[in-house]
Amino acid sequence: MDILKFLTAGSVDDGKSTLIGRLLYDTDSVLADQLEAIQKSNRKNDDGTVDLAILTDGLKAEREQGITIDVAYKYFQTEKRKFIIADTPGHIQYTRNMVTGASNADLAIILIDARKGVIEQTIRHSYLVSLLALEHVVVCVNKMDMVDYSEEVFEKIHADYHELATKLGIHEVTFIPVSALRGDNIVNDSAQMPWYKGKSLLAHLETVPVHEVDNLLPARMAVQWVVRPQTDDLHDYRGYAGRVLSGAFRIGEEVKIFPSGNKSKIERLETFDGDLQIAEEGKSITLHLEDEIDISRGDIIGEIERSPLVSNQIEADICWMDTRELDTSATYLIQHQSKVTRCKIKEVLYKVNINTLEKINADTFGLNDIGRVEIKTADELAFDPYETNKRNGGAIIIDSRTNVTVGALMLRAAL
Amino acid sequence: MDYLDQLEAEAIAILREVAGQFEKPALLFSGGKDSITLVRLAEKAFRPGKFPFPLVHVDTGHNFPEVIEFRDRMVKRIGEKLIVGHVQDAIDSGRAIEQKGKNASRNALQTVTLLETIEKNQFDACIGGARRDEEKARAKERIFSVRDEFGQWDPKRQRPELWNTFNGKIHKGENVRVFPISNWTELDVWNYIKRENIEIPSIYYSHKRDVIERNGVWMAAHEFLNMDADDKIYNKSVRFRTVGDMTCTAAVESEKTEIDDIILEISQSKISERGARMDDKVSEAAMEDRKKGGYF
């Protein structure tokens, strides 16, 4: 059994909370004490049934202010798979939260109100999904009960969205007509739409293939910690602890250290449970090299053949996440994997109007703005272009005055 | 990758980030199954080296004796340092005031001792075993959660947390609470304990015990609970699903003495884990309020 991480994109009016509530409720994931709490609540649907949206209700601090603060994670499982939902709120800070939620998701569910079709908000959500390079998109055309379960309405939205997805370079899209309120095609197949031959949402989520180890990607590991016990019996022990970001490492294979460019051979791939012959993507290991070379935390170990880009001048897409505007004269910190160095965001190339996808001129970025920038870093970074290997292509910007994470970067090219 | 391997690899990577980013981290050890799981994960992250942090236990003085015995034995086995902060010390010196009445518990007082222990040892990161599936305030918690010098959690000031890139930068006096098993569920922890054959305190398994009924749940009969003549004592076969101190941890009736049976019982259970915690029953936002006050 594996884990699927997904995010739901849509505003309150699209029935996002009801959809999540329905998934939890119909998979029996709501426990008695939680159910008791919602049954006691005064919030009911028009027909007197419990309002499943309550299951995603947030904190007292949020209710007092009538807003959702940020991403909430929900967990459920079926016999086939475990699921982690990143439930991101729908208000003004949505972009920041959706980017955060999407950075760790395998799949995005985009909700479209059947009565409204593809609207500005759909474009915005889909743009973010393509920016963060999510592999899978499911478009749930919701509120089908409000349009008499019409195949024609569904097909029109299907065609409109297909056009948008092509424009954005989103390749894998699955369309499902649903009613979260009535439970049609969420967990149970709908009797109301015999014209729909596909799977219910849950059946799709249970079977869509994700994170099968992609051995086509180049081998990368970021060194997080150098293990040097320096005890009598482990006097010469030196291991590089980290997680395989992408690809696979094999014993005896030659590797290169970045940014230094030094080479060595893999001697051991150690884990607490015994040595490995091959360490694949996702594994946390301790790697040993044949030669004693200078390696420290933050360095990238990679294969010889396909090197990462190594540069201190980088072009990147940025999502600004702070209420304080970007200051192009200030020095920030940039964190890529386990490496932190100083940087300046030297130039704003353009900003994207994420509702129309237009590129516009800009000098700076405010909260939730997205666009392209040129960055100069104090030390060189060893990265892969985000679109080819996102496991080694993302970085964050930290304001050194406040220590807050103020920007997300999708690294694109070395200049 | 199997889900337990995936969760394990993520937790190991988080622990190694703590080692790399902080000067004086600590692992908060309660003696419960979640923190015992953290110890196993730390072994996986740092062996054959030593842990780059001590274990810290906040002892309310009302712990189950089985848990304290287990703690000392485990610490000896792994050969790591243990620091114990005593709530009793805070009470004796007047920095904490004991609650009165039947529902009195030292649970809330733990925060005083925790914050004092953090300050005294100048810990800049505290690793804890909290999980997001436990409670809705925890569902919004970061893996690296920054606290101010009063230990306060401010949900509005949380940093966005992207990819597996953790920002642990803090100002002097602040500290970070780190939750490596954020993405695990209760069942995941149990399945991992089974897979790894990890020893846990005996009170997690069914045993005969004198219990009394308090607010609709069974509590261990003990002088710590301020019992009086109205409390009727029953002898029942019970086990504990979480391990806090005796005054706030309710028992569930159970005949299960094998881990497989316990896993089955939990997967079929209709009550959430924290439903057995008196500390969350106080009000709907009990956890949220305690976290803002420095609870972990």
UniProtKB/TrEMBL annotation, chain A:
Nucleotide-binding found in the keyword field: yes
Keywords noted in UniProt: ATP-binding, GTP-binding, Nucleotide-binding, Nucleotidyltransferase, Transferase
InterPro entries assigned to the protein according to its UniProt record, in alphabetical order: CysN_GTP-bd, CysN_II, CysN_NoDQ_III, EFTu-like_2, G_TR_CS, GTP-eEF1A_C, P-loop_NTPase, SO4_adenylTrfase_lsu
Ranges of residues in domain Tr-type G: 1-216
EC number from the UniProt entry: 2.7.7.4
Top enzyme category: transferase
A UniProt-annotated Pfam family: GTP_EFTU_D2
Protein name: sulfate adenylyltransferase
PANTHER family: TRANSLATION FACTOR
Automatic annotation (TrEMBL), chain B:
GO MF term list: sulfate adenylyltransferase (ATP) activity
Residue ranges, annotated region (Disordered): 275-296
Gene3D superfamilies: HUPs
E.C. numbers: 2.7.7.4
Span of domain Phosphoadenosine phosphosulphate reductase: 25-250
Record-stated family: Belongs to the PAPS reductase family. CysD subfamily.
Protein name per UniProt: Sulfate adenylyltransferase subunit 2
The encoding gene: cysD
